[in-house]
Amino acid sequence: MRWSSLVFSCTFSIFLAGCHSPSAPSGEPLDSFPNLQTNSKATILNGIIVHEAGGLTIARAYLSNANGNLLPAGNTVAGGDTVCLNLVVAQGWIAENGQVALGARQSIVTGQGEPVLSSPDLFNGTKVGESQAGHVQLKAVITQPRSDTQSYLVRYRVWDKNGTGDVRGSYRLHLAASSEE
How many domains does the chain have? Predict the structure, then answer.
C-alpha cells in the first residue's frame, strides 16, 4: 500500500506567501465533527460544507486551482495539482490593535476513511491586518496519489484566536485517472 504525500499551506488573501508550522495541533481533532451540515447563508460552490459558529460568517466558499481558476463542480484534479479552499469572510474577526489572530487546520482521509494527513495550526502565531483576514485560502496538493483510492475527504477548521468565531467543514476531492495505469 502506498500512502499519499500531501502538502498543506495557507495564505491570507491572494498575495501572502504560504506558511506551515511544526507546532502541535490546537483544539479538538478534525475528525470529531464528521457529520457537520452547512448552516451558512454564504454562496457556496463545489459541495463544500460550511458550518459557522461564534459570530464568524462566510460570504463565499469555493475551490480553485493555483492560478485562481474555479475548480469544476466535480472537484476532479490530477495528482500534483494544487487545490485551494477559498473562504471569503463576511464578518466576525475580533481584531486587537488592528490585527487578527487566526488559526487553521486541515486533515485528509481517503474515501475509505483512512487517515492520510493532519496538519497542525497552519497560522501558528501569525497575525495579519483585518483587511488581509477577509480572504483565507488553504491549499492542499496530492503529490503521490495512492493506487487504491481516487477519492479523498478534506476537513478544515478556521478559528479566531481572539474570540469564539469558528468555521469548519469539509469537501470531497477526486483524482483524475492517471494515463500511466
Answer: 1
CA distance 157 to 161: 12
Radius of gyration of the chain (CA): 16
CATH number at residue 130: 2.70.50
pTM: 0.82
Tell me the pLDDT tens digit for each residue of 101-147: 999 999 998 888 888 888 889 988 789 999 899 999 999 887 777 77
Nearest to 107 by CA among 97, 95, 119: 119
> Which cell is 116 given?
492520510
Closest CA to 26 of 122, 155, 108: 122
The pLDDT assigned to 141 comes to 81
Neighbours of 39 (CB within 10 A): 11
